[in-house]
Amino acid sequence: TSLRISALVTAMALAIGPAGATDTTQSLLSDRLDQLTLAVTTRSDDALVMMISEAAMDPDLLPLERDQLMQAFIDRLRMLPPDSVGPATLQFLLDYQPQAMRPDEHRPVVPVPVYNVGAAARGLINGWRREEAAYAGAILLTRDPAALVHAFAMHDEAPVRRGLIAALNNATRGQLEMISFMALSAMDQEPALAALAGEAALRIGDARALEQLVRNGRGPAITHILRASRERLSPEQVERLLDHAIDQAEPEVAAVAIAELSPVLTGRPGADDRLFALLGSKTLGATAALSLAENPSDATLVRLGEMLRGNDTTLAAKRARLALELVEFQGDTEVLP
Questions:
Q1: Would you state the pLDDT for residue 328?
Q2: Residue 85 and residue 242: Cα distance in Å, rounded?
Q3: What is the mean pLDDT of residues 216-232?
């Protein structure tokens, strides 16, 4: 492993310079960056921290250039295997205080770092943890898919769970079916397993598993799976999944399903009928109105307007008015009768 890391470091030191450096500082920054990169394999953790500390106070570099150097060093570390540097080096980068600031784009009175080195370091660590988890997940997958489900439930760190999900990329259909079944079965004890169950089901287009997921699942994972369903299922499968969510899921899940799945069904026979039928629902009517207001056809606008010409005090009529008000607000067009 050390030989592999050394070869990677040498190649990068020859090929990559710090992004954004001016001509006058390119050579100096490249030299400092090469020294730090090569020290990854030739110095101890404490000695590397000392070198980075000195670089962060280098009098030959401007504050912006010192921050740029730290950012460039992290960018090089991304290309190395996980844990190529020790905990002291990582902690230094996490704690690094940027020296060059700029006005925030949205709140100019608030200064923000030009190079957010600490955030980049956290991203580096998370990326390494994800990579390690994906490798471990691939091993678990070949030995016992149930062990991967257990590992997902036991680790609540997002990078680890993303890595375990990434391990599914090389799973067989049989392994995915087993993982989906086991994760769905244990979802009552660990709701976060919805993410694993959904990803496994999506990879094999298991409509029944996805229906069970929206019927029994909770939390942010359901939103992610429903959003992914728009791109990875056929329109017919999406339509059945939406109908199932409306009929059998909890109201909060059904509302998410309407918001996420309805846009891809626009123009299909019966798509608007489904939403119009929900306008009078106390729990789902507002979500249906929002969906109808998103890129409505002329026929949809006429139908909404007709609902206001009779008894416009009904809940359905009020939701129709809400949809038309949203259309006017979004498009600066008068559509209310």
A1: 84
A2: 48
A3: 88
pLDDT at 297: 85
Q: Which residues contact 50 (CB under 8 A, 6 or more apart)?
A: none
Distance CA 328, CA 333 (A): 5
Taking 60 as the threshold, does the pLDDT of residue 332 lie above it?
no
Cα dihedral 212, 216, 222, 226 sign = positive
What's the CA gap between 22 and 260, in Å, rounded? Answer: 46
CA separation for the pair 128, 108 (Å, rounded): 34
CB neighbour list of residue 252: distance below 8 Å, 6 or more residues apart: none
Q: Tokens 């980049």 identify what position?
A: 120
Q: At what angle do helices 285-292 and 315-331 cross, to 10 degrees?
A: 40
In percent, the amount of the chain with pLDDT more than 90 equals 70
Q: What is the pTM of this model?
A: 0.79
How far is 322 from 304, CA to CA, in rounded Å? Answer: 10
E strand segments, 108-237: 111-113
Determine the Cα–Cα distance for residues 151 and 179; give it in Å rounded to an integer.
Answer: 12
Burial of 210 (0-12, 13-18, 19+ CB in 10 A): buried
Query: In terms of residues, how long is the chain?
Result: 337
pLDDT at residue 145 tops 90: yes
Q: Dihedral sign, CA of 247, 249, 251, 257? A: negative
* Least confident among 44-53, 91-100, 119-128, 309-318: 309-318
pLDDT value of residue 333: 65
What number of helices (H) and strands (E) belong to the chain? 18, 2
Q: Give the residue among 198, 199, 203, 227 at the shortest CA–CA distance from 213.
A: 198
Between CA 126 and CA 119 the distance in angstroms is 10
- As given in the structure block, the two tokens for residue 167 are 């391990």
